[in-house]
Write a structure and sequence with these properties.
It contains 10 helices and no strands. By secondary structure, it is mainly alpha-helical. The model has no long low-confidence stretch (mean pLDDT about 85).
């Protein structure tokens, strides 16, 4: 097993062993989309129209839920220093680390998003488009949360700092993801364009964010 695959597997195991795996983000996401209609009202057309935006906001909160543990624990016990001294390229290392946690914890979100859209009265095809857009957005959301987590590593009560850093950067990809679901619901031909833009933002984030995460982690370690 290579060093990168070992780090990926370690993060996936730690996510299940210490953080409950996918249970926490899934429960948070499900609670958010279930409680939202209490504030919006029971009108079926309104719920179907605002559903993609609610899914995006719920996904943002779910991703941020465990972001403080991603690099905070490693910063505290010295593991982060060992990572940087391991000889593995830091940008590849942090990418494996972030994706390991994301795969272990966030895989239920598109499935719950699909069921939530159906619950809101969206037909199956627009619901599938919204779920695919959410799936395409997860890499970008995870890496942005990882960047904020690296910047806040070692700070007490870092959750608020991470939210303040990450939330504005997550908004563009969520706009495209929610736009894909909304356009599909309205029968607008821009649904595919928004879906592809979501994927493009995630690919660009995957290419660039690991360098920022590695630099932020180095800065926190002095």
């Amino acid at each position: 097993m290579s060093a990168l695959s070992a780090i990926f597997a370690r993060e996936a195991r730690l996510a299940w062993a210490g953080g409950g795996g996918a249970a926490g983000p899934a429960a948070f996401f499900l609670a958010a989309i279930t409680l939202a209609p209490l504030a919006i009202g029971p009108a079926a057309d309104l719920l179907a129209a605002v559903g993609p935006g609610i899914m995006g906001f719920a996904a943002l909160l779910s991703v941020l839920q465990s972001a403080d543990r991603l690099f905070g624990d490693d910063h505290g016990d010295g593991t982060a220093e060992l990572y940087l001294l391991s000889g593995v390229t830091p940008s590849w290392l942090v990418l494996a680390k972030v994706m390991g946690q994301a795969v272990a914890t966030l895989w239920p979100l598109p499935v719950i998003g699909l069921l939530g859209a159906l619950m809101y009265g969206v037909t199956i095809l627009p619901a599938l488009v919204g779920a695919l857009a959410l799936l395409a957005a997860i890499p970008a959301l995870s890496l942005i949360a990882g960047f904020a987590g690296a910047l806040a590593a070692g700070i007490r009560r870092s959750g608020l700092v991470i939210a303040l850093i990450a939330t504005p950067m997550m908004v563009p990809v969520l706009i495209f993801a929610a736009g894909a679901g909304r356009s599909a619901f309205e029968g607008d031909e821009r649904a595919l364009a928004n879906l592809l833009l979501t994927l493009a933002v995630s690919l660009a984030t995957t290419a660039l964010a690991p360098f920022g995460i590695a630099a932020a982690l180095r800065s926190r370690l002095g």
